[in-house]
Design brief:
Order of helices and strands: HEEEEEEEEEEEEEEEE
Distance between the termini: 20 Å
Strand content: over 45%
Helix content: under 10%
Length: 223
């Protein structure tokens, strides 16, 4: 899938709105973003590669003692690192060797919600792989168990969840298993392939879901 299509898919899943203020009204300096705040957020990143399909990754955060641990989940991978936000910025060194490094520069919107300012990705093994998309949102959406989602990209796909199984209608007659990795996010297996999905609020504050599969850079949007 082209990068522009990836962008469109992610934008179908999320929306950030900001209220306008009188241009003559002085704006207060936004509060610095502290590390503990990220526990209420998730980040999705998408990649572009001229030679291979690189699946998206999902970052989520949890407190462990006095530290905040960032977990980076790929469809078939997981890395966990302690992170610290300094000057509204933090880095995530995937293998702690400087080869695969993510940098996120955060800021606040006019409502004080944390949003992505800019991001960078370094891949010393393959510099042609870039990360054109990095989006952060509050993980305040409801769960997905027992729900049915329909695709919104014209494919007429359907995702259906029970409490511990799921079906995906392009894969006829098969039932998959899944487990939750974070609030509204999951990994699963169906018909011999691995999948990952994550929920997010759409522009109407309804629950939407993005689905990706091993060896694919596609994010299929559902609602």
């Amino acid at each position: 899938m082209k990068t522009t299509h990836i962008v469109a898919s992610i934008l179908l899943l999320i929306s950030f709105t900001a209220c306008k203020k009188n241009s003559n009204e002085p704006k207060p300096e936004p509060k610095p973003i502290i590390t503990d705040e990220l526990v209420g957020y998730q980040i999705v990143v998408a990649f572009k590669s001229p030679a291979a399909n690189v699946p998206p990754k999902l970052f989520h955060f949890a407190k462990s003692g006095n530290e905040v641990m960032a977990t980076m989940d790929g469809v078939q991978s997981r890395r966990i690192r302690a992170i610290t936000v300094t000057d509204n910025r933090f880095t995530f060194d995937s293998d702690e060797d400087g080869k695969f490094v993510y940098e996120f520069n955060l800021k606040r919107d006019e409502k004080g919600v944390v949003i992505m300012g800019s991001s960078k990705y370094q891949n010393l093994n393959d510099p042609s792989i870039t990360m054109p998309i990095a989006v952060i949102w509050l993980s305040d959406f409801p769960g997905f168990k027992g729900k049915t989602f329909k695709s919104v990209d014209g494919t007429n796909y359907e995702l259906k969840f029970t409490t511990d199984t799921w079906t995906f209608n392009p894969v006829a007659g098969k039932t998959g298993t899944f487990y939750e990795i974070a609030k509204g996010a999951w990994k699963g297996r169906l018909d011999g392939k691995d999948y990952m999905g994550f929920s997010a609020p759409d522009e109407h504050n309804q629950v939407a879901m993005g689905l990706t599969r091993e060896d694919s850079e596609m994010i299929i949007p559902f609602q």
